TrEMBL record:
It comes from the Bacteria. Pfam families: Glyoxalase. This is Glyoxalase. InterPro entries: Glyas_Bleomycin-R_OHBP_Dase (IPR029068), Glyas_Fos-R_dOase_dom (IPR004360), VOC_core (IPR037523). The lineage of its organism: Bacteria, Pseudomonadati, Pseudomonadota, Gammaproteobacteria, Alteromonadales. Residues 9-134 form the VOC domain.
Length: 157
């Protein structure tokens, strides 16, 4: 019997977030993003060595920071260059729930030129999330024109 190169249900790419307080982050993601906890491997001190959540049709892995092993959190680094993109059914409700639960708004929710309604926030653990609901399918030509129009508006502002 052969084993698949990736576990059942996983996509080829899965985000793995290093967090100060992974257990609290898992609870935050459950509350805000309706994440399901798939599994968690606790450490003796109460931390999380490895956790897996499912948000929509995608998995997210998390673990507590372990600087000795070069696994550091955004707070330990003073920020993060990585951003997560999450599509949800109702961006306005999900975004508001995240803010109410302690996230910080970085960009308010608004209609984007590329056909999504989206906003960006920083979760309480230092990770950046753009939350969106796709509203409009665009052809490559429409997208290019809207991008050009958007850039022109930015230069005029």
């Amino acid at each position: 019997m052969s084993v698949s190169a990736k576990p059942k249900g996983f996509h080829s790419l899965t985000a793995y977030l290093i967090i100060d307080g992974a257990a609290k982050a898992m609870a935050f993601y459950q509350h805000v993003f309706a994440a399901e906890i798939v599994m968690q491997m606790p450490l003796p001190d109460g931390g999380i060595a490895h956790g897996e959540l499912k948000i929509g049709d995608s998995y997210l892995m998390v673990a507590d920071a372990c600087p000795d092993e070069h696994f550091v959190s955004p707070h330990q680094l003073g920020g993060t260059p990585v951003s997560m993109m999450l599509y949800v059914e109702d961006v306005d409700t999900t975004f508001a729930r995240a803010i109410d639960a302690g996230a910080k708004e970085l960009r308010p929710v608004h209609d984007q030129f590329y056909g999504d309604r989206a906003g960006t926030l920083e979760d309480p653990f230092g990770h950046i999330w753009t939350i969106a609901t796709h509203q409009e399918d665009l052809s490559p030509e429409q997208l290019q024109q809207r991008m050009a129009d958007f850039m022109s508006e930015q230069q005029d502002a």
